Amino acid sequence: MERMSVQSLQVLDDMPTLCTPGLLVMDVDSTLIDEEVIDELGDAAGVGERIADVTARAMNGELDFAEALHARVALLKGLPASRFDDVYARLHFTNGALPLIERLHAHGWKVGVVSGGFHEIVDWLAREAGLDYWIANRLGLDDATGTLDGTVTGPIVTKDVKLQALHDWAQRNAIDMRQTVAVGDGANDLPMIAAAGLGIAFCAKPKVRAAAPHTIDTRDLTRVLDFLAH
């Protein structure tokens, strides 16, 4: 059962509410969707176990995220870009993700994601889910061969980028930070979880669960609404 305990219930009056437009920002891998996209890409490239090991250590906060990302992406060098279609077909929205987004939109909320994953996949997810905003990394492509070149192009989406996106999107919509929600499962989500009016560790790694003010341990994103229906 998720840790929405007496302590959580006692501060509901100070939390965001559906009665007023707000902003929810969440992670993508293992939050908006059940899978870790880079692990799925690793499987497609035949290096799944090696990448999954680095992913787990990075999400536990044992490795610097940017360094871990570069190391994993380097292993994808030579993967045909056409394999994105296959990977996307294997992904699943987390139970409750789409109903949560629909319910928030019905109450005038904005919903965005900030992902350490990749635009090549996140763009499709965002369109299918009807998201308002999204940010992700972008994979380097060798145009001559149509394969990944083993690099990430542009700035890396770090924990600081996630935090800044929360602030920027709230400001863009004139939303008080007290009316914001941040949801994620990894160590790089902690700054935005701490800064939001409601920060939730969702089926998160142990270190993240310990540090987050609120936790949901059931893979059902509609449980976020339990905190807002007051």
Automatic annotation (TrEMBL):
It catalyses: O-phospho-L-serine + H2O = L-serine + phosphate; O-phospho-D-serine + H2O = D-serine + phosphate. Keywords: Amino-acid biosynthesis, Hydrolase, Magnesium, Metal-binding, Serine biosynthesis. GO terms for cellular component: cytoplasm. Belongs to the HAD-like hydrolase superfamily. SerB family. The keyword Hydrolase applies. It comes from Bifidobacterium pseudolongum PV8-2. It is an enzyme of class 3 (hydrolase). This is phosphoserine phosphatase. One of its GO terms (molecular function) is L-phosphoserine phosphatase activity.
